[in-house]
Amino acid sequence: MTELARLDHVTRRFGAVTALDDVSLEIESGRIVGLLGPNGAGKTTLLSLLQGRRRPTSGTVQLFGGSPSDHRTRAALGSTPQETALPPTLRVGEVIDFIGAHFADAVPTIALADEFGLTDLLKRQTGALSGGQKRRLSVALAFVGRPKLVLLDEPTTGLDVDARRTLWDAVRRQHDAGSTVVVTSHYLDEIEALAERVIVMGHGRVLADDSLGAVLGQVGVRMIRLRTDVADLTAPDALASLPGVVTAQPEPDGWHTLVSRDADETVVALVRSGIAFRDLAVRGATLEEAFLTLTAADALQEQN
Question: Which residue from 164, 171, 207, 259 could staple onto 246, CB 3.0 to 4.6 Å apart?
């Protein structure tokens, strides 16, 4: 794999606010990278540094071995920001033609429109498009120049479920054709569906950076779900005090979900406790649960 981008001990401050705090990472070719984190974690700031729209307060940023602020370096970069302004009076086909004219080997307009489900919209003015249609066009434009690296910031915001999955398929095909993709998303199922590598950020720092499976394993928690007698008002406190339990969440109809760092120890203690239970199930954490655990631990560390 070839290194496409690198951040080396990068810090970016906006006045008294530290958006990125000593971040070091590399983006290598051939993968889809998922960038996760709550609002204010530093995801968009990181992308803006790679795009050359901002400079680091300290540290260095490289893109294709050069400076992101050099337009010649950025020629092999495609991106879709969270918000994109499209000329309202231009037709969809005209917008694609205009952007494609900036590249020596642009994807033909018809081919790009077909790939992203825009063929029926080519003659429509962008001002008449729905929010979801504008989003699809914005993502398509990121790929028009056959880029080596594509940065997608919340690419499916405003799309319904079917449109999101259609866009996922298009992104996968572009990746298979040679584009490396970095995608940020608040939809954790999106990262789970697309990403091979996951970077979790919090308070401007990298909390986890590994394969999807390794990030899930790094959290080291299991989810235990069981049902107790609805009338047993002591069950929530008793369950929360079991060995290995991080959190115990009561639910309707006597259900409880436990997060445990040692499911075997927790279940053995549960049996010995005398608490009446049934319908016990143990499973691994989802990406969403791993994400919440990682960011919650970071928030707790910040408070301390």
Answer: 259
**Contact of 241 with 234, CB cutoff 8 Å:** no
Give the residue from 222, 183, 219 showing the smallest Cα distance to 298.
219
Which H helix or E strand runs over 214?
A: helix 212-219
d(CA 112, CA 116): 6
Whether residue 184 has pLDDT greater than 70: yes
Both 189 and 44 in one domain: the answer is: yes
Cα-based distances in Å from 89 to 81, 86, 94, 117, 172: 21, 9, 10, 21, 31
- 295 lies in a domain? no
Most distant pair of Cα atoms in the chain: their distance = 73
Tokens 């020629």 correspond to what residue?
Answer: 75
pTM: 0.78
Sheet holding 205-211, edge to edge: 77-80, 149-153, 180-184, 32-36, 197-202, 205-211
Whether 287 contacts 254, CB under 8 Å: no
| H-run or E-run covering 93 | helix 92-100
Q: Which three-class secondary structure state does DSSP give residue 271?
A: helix
Is residue 158 a part of any domain in this protein?
Answer: yes
Contacts of 214 (CB under 8 A, 6+ apart): none
Higher pLDDT, 285 or 203: 203
Phi, psi angles (nearest 5°) of residue 91: -80, 160
Q: In 63-83, which positions are buried (b, 16+ CB within 10 angstroms) versus exposed (e)? A: bbeeebeeeebbebbbbbbee
* Mean pLDDT taken over the chain: 89
Mapped onto helix, strand or coil, the DSSP state of residue 242 is coil
CB atoms within 10 A of CB 55: 13
Tokens of residue 194, six digits = 């697309």
The amino acid occupying position 72 is: R
Task: Look up the domain containing 120 and give its range.
Answer: 3-213
Say if residues 78 and 138 touch (Cβ distance below 8 Å): no
